[in-house]
Amino acid sequence: MKDVITNYINENYPELMDEILLADGFEDAFMGVVYSMGSPPKACYDSDRCLKILEERDEMTPEEAEEYFDFNVISAYVGEFTPAFVKPLSN
Q1: What three-state secondary structure class fits 77?
Q2: Considering the domain boundaries, does residue 91 fall inside one?
Q3: Assuming Cys at both sites, which of 12, 23, 50, 65 could form a disulfide with 60, CB separation 3.0 to 4.6 Å?
Q4: What strand order describes the sheet that includes 30-36?
Q5: How far apart are CA 23 and CA 89, in angstroms?
Q6: 63: domain range?
Q7: Prediction pTM value
């Protein structure tokens, strides 16, 4: 899946290939690239899928996954190309 994401970014954003940062280990939660006025394009992930990955891959409880995700993933600012995370609308 990582190759698919890399190819997608290379084909659609070749000038930003070395700038757009990816969240390692969350490839299955990758949604695409998000735009926002005043901010460069950045990788976008489904936060619910990220939590499921932590629960399944790392055998975390939902509470442990949420705490880990909030502290170590969402709060990890690494510059203007830091990935974005979307909380999908639930029914």
Answers
A1: coil
A2: no
A3: 65
A4: 30-36, 39-46, 84-86
A5: 22
A6: 2-86
A7: 0.92
DSSP 25: T
Q: How many domains does the chain have?
A: 1
Give strand ranges (E) for the chain.
30-36, 39-46, 84-86
Residues 6 or more apart in contact with residue 39 via CB below 8 angstroms: 80
Compute CA distances 65 → 8, 35, 36, 44, 50, whole Å.
Answer: 28, 27, 28, 19, 9
**Residue that the structure tokens 């995700």 belong to:** 69
Q: What angle do CA 81, 68, 77 make, to 5 degrees?
A: 20
Q: What are phi and psi of 36, to 5 degrees?
A: -155, 135
Question: What pLDDT does residue 1 have?
Answer: 87
Per-residue pLDDT tens digits for 2-43 = 999 999 999 999 999 999 999 999 999 999 999 999 999 999
Residue indicated by tokens 């399944």: 56
In the Cβ-directed half-sphere of 91, how many Cα atoms lie within 13 Å?
A: 0
Q: Which amino acid is at 22?
A: L
